[in-house]
Amino acid sequence: MTGTEVRPLRRDAQRNRERIIAAAREVFAARGFAATLDDVAHHAGVGVGTVYRRFPTKEALVEAVFSDRLEDLVTLAEESLAAPSAWDGLTGFLRRSARMHAVDRGLRDAALSMDEHHFVQAGEHIVPLVEQLMDRAHAEGTLRPDAGFRDFPIIMAMVTDLARHSAECRPDLFERYLELVIDGLRARPDNGSLGTEPSEADVRGVMRECVPPLESRRR
Amino acid sequence: MTGTEVRPLRRDAQRNRERIIAAAREVFAARGFAATLDDVAHHAGVGVGTVYRRFPTKEALVEAVFSDRLEDLVTLAEESLAAPSAWDGLTGFLRRSARMHAVDRGLRDAALSMDEHHFVQAGEHIVPLVEQLMDRAHAEGTLRPDAGFRDFPIIMAMVTDLARHSAECRPDLFERYLELVIDGLRARPDNGSLGTEPSEADVRGVMRECVPPLESRRR
DNA sequence: GCCGAAGTGGAGGATGTTCCTCAACTTCGG
DNA sequence: CCGAAGTTGAGGAACATCCTCCACTTCGGC
User: Fold this and answer.
1) Chains A and B: how many Cβ contacts under 8 Å?
2) A38 vs B: CB within 8 A
3) Per-residue pLDDT for A24 more than 80?
4) A66-209 carries CATH number 1.10.357.10
5) I want to staple A131 with a disulfide (CB 3.0 to 4.6 A). Which of A13, A149, A195, B105 is the partner?
6) Closest CA to B171 of B101, B76, B90
7) pLDDT at residue B190 above 60?
8) DSSP states along B52-116
9) Distance of C1' in C12 from CA in B173, Å
10) Percentage of chain A exceeding pLDDT 70
11) B contacts of A154 (beta carbons < 8 Å)
């Protein structure tokens, strides 16, 4: 009683589907979720209709392209947890994931949509890992105590936003300011005070605000 | 031979002009340069046509509203230069100007448009002041040597961008991350290295990218 | 080869946004 | 009182994006 007969695609259709996904990867990398399905279609050398036939909504395509890319972030976090020094693990993760987000704006948008339907799963994987990275650095005494794991996504949002704005002239400029932030994260006797930590809702709010809507007009 | 007869406005017209500027101040503060002249008109309780009669382009209105507001930044910088400690002067300027930009998004957009035609003058006033603030802190030994005055606008852009994204849920959230950056700016023996300083062109590029176009369709 | 089902293309309608004009009307003030 | 100055806001022009639709092409089992 499988309601869904999973008829395989015709050979040419399958080829086009793959072309579309490849094109989407490129286009989303360059323009993020703001990219148009028309854009993707042109890049794939395919009519718009074909894209809409294969992926009825932008969400569907985005999910197809990025659900596994997000797993890369998870493995990166796991690797970083294995670092001998907690500080190096944490800052390495910051640097490397920021670089990934800078190179692939679609990945950034996906990561910042983590509480959205499609990506919750990856989100649930990553959050505790980041939490651990922070905890270990706290325990080690290298990370300032008033920085919490909720600061992580906001720092990422802030820094990759800069990456977005400098993409045309200096795609690597964000690294400079990330280093500044990282140096600011170090535990020091005379650090200023950071004020109240953001709430879960604040984080969500900022993340949502940093990503293009991705909504469908269809109802 | 004054080609421009400066006929004074009729009383009611003058009143409307002022209403429009007041409304523009509010609307631009809330939505930045992205605000519409239609928006301004409604807020002023005036027809759109009236706005366009008084200010033929958005540029004209923006200039009327912000050219003196930018002077506030200049005086703030001058005050900060008078601070007894160079570090406190510099960081105070960072904090206070960031707060001004967070409260008034139009001011932010104006400040980030400093190389644009209208605001060059204010720009020419501020740049050397910021330079002095930095130099003094360098001389004092409190500011890390590898941070230059060109980092200032980029830090401001980055932090106020965050302010923009958190405006709805936590308008003050940017302060937390500004503190982080400020702590990162402190001279310390074991600071990481920042990499190459941005060029003048990089700064310009980022600033332009951070502000809505403000272009007119008219030619 | 043939033919029906599967697949394709891309012009174009629907919808939305912003800019700005203009012709009929209102108000001011000498 | 009347002409000049001012006002209004519907609506046209320009643009962007989404997505549909149907005449057409291609596949692949027979």
Assistant:
1) 135
2) no
3) yes
4) yes
5) A149
6) B101
7) yes
8) HHH-SSHHHHHHHHHTTHHHHHHHHHHHHHTSSSHHHHHHHHHHHHHHHHHH-HHHHHHHTTTTS
9) 47
10) 96
11) 162, 173, 177
Specify the residue for token string 């960072």.
B94
Q: Which residues contact A198 (CB under 8 A, 6 or more apart)?
A: A150, A151, A154, A206, B170, B173, B176
CATH number of B11-65: 1.10.10.60
Mean of pLDDT values over A93-113? 98
A136-161 burial by CB neighbour count: b if 16+ within 10 A, else e?
Answer: bbbeeebbbebbebbbbbbbbbbbbb
Q: Which residue's C-alpha is at the least distance from the C1' of D28?
A: A10
Distance from CA of B48 to the nearest CA of A (A): 30
Q: Which two tokens stand for residue B142?
A: 């409190």
What is the model's pLDDT at position A2?
46
For B69-209, give the CATH class: mainly alpha
Out of B166, B172, B175, the one facing A206 most closely (by C-beta) is B166
Q: What is the ipTM of this complex?
A: 0.94
Tell me if A209 and B165 make a contact (CB, 8 A cut-off): yes
CB proximity A159 to B under 8 Å: yes
Interior angle at CA B202, CA B190 and CA A35, nearest 5: 110
**Domain over A10-55 is classified CATH 1.10.10:** yes
So where are chain A's domains?
Answer: 10-55, 66-209
The Cα of A89 is separated from the nearest Cα of chain B by a number of Å equal to 15
Å from A14 (CA) to D18 (C1')? 25
A202–B155 CB contact, under 8 Å: no
Residue B196 predicted with pLDDT over 80: yes
pLDDT of residue A8: 87
The pLDDT assigned to A3 comes to 47
Spacing of B11 CA from C29 C1' in Å: 10
